[in-house]
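Repro:
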Amino acid sequence: MRITKSNQVYQLTYLPHIFPVNCYLVEEEDGLTLVDAALPNNAEAIIKAAEDIGKPIVRIVLTHAHSDHIGALDSLKARLPDVKVYISARDSRLLAGDAALEPGESQLPVKGGVPKPGAIKTMPDVLLQEGDRIGSLLAISTPGHTPGSMSFLDTRSQTLIAGDALQLRGGIAVSGQLKPWFPFPALATWNKQASLESARKLQAYKPAVLAVGHGNMLQQPGAALAKAIAEAERKLK
């Protein structure tokens, strides 16, 4: 697993040159916040990375409930029983295996690797809403990839951890916009229009660093993000 650091954020990347799957360790005074839980066989590498940093993992925050973001959750919780687990109230239902849509939501089918009912044993401790704070992280509701996707802004450095609201592998794109060299985030996206609206929302925060589920971190992403939004707008007209 490759580790890349930017400010207080460590990007942990599994299979960086083939099929990169990222999770993040965010350094706080009281320990580390793990954002996303990668794949089932990544638990040991995540714990080793925390040991190398020299601080314990004290909480796990999930951007959404797809399998490549929650894979090691149960293994990590078994190893670290005192950690609290955070996910949006909306995607907590997906975590439990319930892909039914709520009244008022677009009735497009939820796509991607949603766990089967009961497959994930870990129950979230905190159900997040827009504007909640988790240490230095600000929770931002960014539906589109899934109905309850969230992004997290480290307010110390303006590092934006956006899950699959955007991708960088294969070229920067708003979730739902197909990049042939890495089509998987687009194919797993629930609602392209909602994804575009969420990308515009994230743009307004003027992130200094963009960190996503797939692809290397991007410094000063403003121009690239604007281009990706413009491309999505053209395609969705």
